[in-house]
Amino acid sequence: xxxDIAKISIKAGNGGGGAVTFHREKYVDAxxxxxxxxxxxxxxxxxxxxxLSTLADFRYQRKYAAQNGEPGRGKRCSGKSGEDLVIRxxxxxxxxxxxxxxxxxxLSTDEPCVIAxxxxxxxxxxxxxxxxxxxxRFARPGTPGEAFELQLELKLLADVGLIGFPNVGKSTLIxxxxxxxxxxxxxxxxxxxxxLGVVSMGEGSSFVMADIPGLIEGAGEGAxxxxxxxxHVERCRLLVHIVDVAGSEGRDPVKDFEMINKELGxxxxxxAERPMLVVGNKCDLATEEQIASFxxxxxxxxxxxxxxxxxxxxxxxxxxxxxxxxxxxxxxVIRYEPDPVPEKPELVxxxxxxxxxxxxxxYVVEGDWLLNVLRTIDFDDSESLxxxxxxxxxxxxxxxxxxAGAGEGDTVSIYDVQFDFVE
Length: 423
Known about the structure:
The protein is of the alpha/beta class.
């Protein structure tokens, strides 16, 4: 099954927490803190794979998570970093944020791309020892890994796109000029998935041709099958518009030509400006007057015209030669640049997001990362409490409480911990 759109959720690994340990050794007094750092969380990495052609695998697995970093240990031993999770997709896959539509990556090269970065490991208590604070009973927690809801969109990488109404001979043409084997039959929508074929021009020269399923009127607005695959035309450097010049199904070739061009423009105005060659197929069924009339109309619009009979390869070689000549002068296949990263909201700091809600006079603070912080705090130790206070200040929690209306003496609750707000 050809699948070119998929939605998945990804979560990079969390960083491991730093360790709170102290050196213990016989005959060694006051060994001091020796807690090691936590390991880095694993990244989510996307890599394009030439052996894949659809996004069908993502219909069965929609959630992906990388390994968390391990916590630090005693003797200043750092925790092991989590392994990166590599997700393989077809070449030409666009990775977007599902909610905002922001483009994160265009996987059109062999280079891997890190989409979600793992959290950093926290510092062990060995980092917090000073001449005046010789017994720190706290450590820094690891930061959470990034998480995204993603939409994957496949846009085929092809030099030439074959477009036209159903049953005009697109599949026949690609079958005689390449090794592609599309299904061919005398009924509409025989081709229901895009087909790629490599056309060899000899001496190491070749190009990729795509047979796009037949378009119909209204395709740019969602009619028929072709609208699902119009996105695959967007990357093509050159369009080859095939028309049944004989009108063998009772349609007017000129109106067919105009209608398909109109649908391309509706879907993406830039496609209307894309270089195009016009091919009149089924010339054996047409009269000389029909061919001449259509040729005059097309050339009057500024397009080159090529009459062919695809089934017997008549007139195909001059067409291929002209395609190769134009491709040598055209820019490479379109690749999209990722959208810039938006500025973080005020309450989203390096450690993560927080929320402050006034519930009956109690200001409730919530944030997943705060749970990790609380686990490292010894509330019976003054130094540990001062560290906790600095975390609340630098992460923006205190500012958020002020903005929510908290004042002197108001009660603040962070999960199971309650204290009075002090200005």
